[in-house]
Amino acid sequence: MKLNGLIAATYTPLDPHGDLNLSAIGPMVEDLLRNGITGLYVCGSTGEGMSLTSEERRKVAEAYVEATAGRVPVIVQVGHNSVHEARQLASHAQAVGADVISATCPSYFKVSSVAALVDCMAELASGAPDLPFYYYHIPALTGSTIEMADFLQRGGDQIPNLVGLKYTDTKLFEFQHCMELEGGRFDVVWGCDEMLLGALATGARAGIGSTYNIAAPLYLQIMAAFEAGDFAQARKGQSLSIEMIRTIGRYPFHPAMKAILEMQGFHVGGCRLPQGRLSPSQSDSLRSELSAIGMDFGHAASLSLNP
């Protein structure tokens, strides 16, 4: 299979006590689909998968699958420090109707060899043998810096349902090499929002990102301009994305993103510790700073290039 377009790394809504607020998922899904999102990536870094209990992760996966109702692919991230637990999460994702599974590697005990990474991913992916599996490469959080081409070559022989990567790093040369490996055998999806244009120029067909939740129109404009050969307009759009992300990055990133979703009217709460949530004064400052670069906080927060 091949993923295409903008895939939102979804947020997990919490109530004021920090418990799941599953009732917010339906409206969030409808807004994402209305804004042109072509897939959902559930319980990843953005969705605080590693801060949720396994039972909570199952409930969130079920809620997103149900709300999406087959309209776009739902990718469930099942990575866990316990590979056995990850395998059970993969089995659950398949049972409830997810379209794809993905997983980070264990990160407490570091995975230091290609063979160990393949063994870990083979075990967990076997829990959902009927679903395509994408390894989630995010070395900044897992500490695993194994060459992805080496993993794909060995993993492709030993993991029957391995189809590609979610590549969340900045090494465009490695990204391109992985895409071209074995005649383009693997589907490699870009995961760094502020470098989407560079990835498109390298051959990316899809991106998975956090800020697609709040600025999908901007990223669709970047993609359309690139496809039309209007590289000046595409660069202008990417520059605006960078400015937006730099603004959000002056605050704790995911709590700030959740604050923006609250400004949209979605009851997502804050983040689980250790991330926490923004103070009211921080939220006010963030809103002012984003308004200054053109973000609209009407029915749905959005940022786009002027016509």
Features:
eight-stranded parallel beta sheet; TIM Barrel; 307 residues; DapA-like; EC 4.1.3.3; 12 helices; schiff base; alpha/beta; lyase
Instruction: Give the helix proportion (percent range).
Output: 40-55%
H/E order of the elements?
EHEHEHEHEHHEHEHEHHHHEE
* Number of separate strands: 10
How many separate domains make up the residues? Answer: 1
Overall average pLDDT: 96
**Proportion of beta-strand residues:** 5-15%
Rg over C-alpha atoms, rounded to the nearest angstrom: 18 Å
From the helix content, strand content and strand pairing, which structural class follows?
Answer: alpha/beta
Question: Could you describe the 3D structure shown?
Answer:
Pyruvate binds at residues 46, 208. Its EC number is 4.1.3.3. The protein has 307 residues and is an alpha/beta fold. It has one domain (5-230): Aldolase class I (TIM Barrel, Alpha-Beta Barrel), CATH 3.20.20.70. It has twelve helices and ten strands. The chain has helices at 25-34, 54-68, 83-96, 114-125, 139-142, 148-158, 172-180, 196-202, 212-227, 231-248, 253-264, 280-292; strands spanning 5-9, 39-42, 74-77, 100-103, 133-137, 162-167, 187-190, 206-209, 296-297, 301-302. Strands 7-6-5-4-3-2-1-8 form an eight-stranded parallel beta sheet. The protein has a two-stranded antiparallel ribbon with strand order 9-10. Helix 2 (54-68) links the parallel strand 2 (39-42) and strand 3. Helix 2 (54-68) runs parallel beside helix 3, helix 8 runs parallel beside helix 9 (212-227) and helix 9 (212-227) packs antiparallel against helix 10 (231-248). The two termini are 35 Å apart. The model has no long low-confidence stretch (mean pLDDT 96).
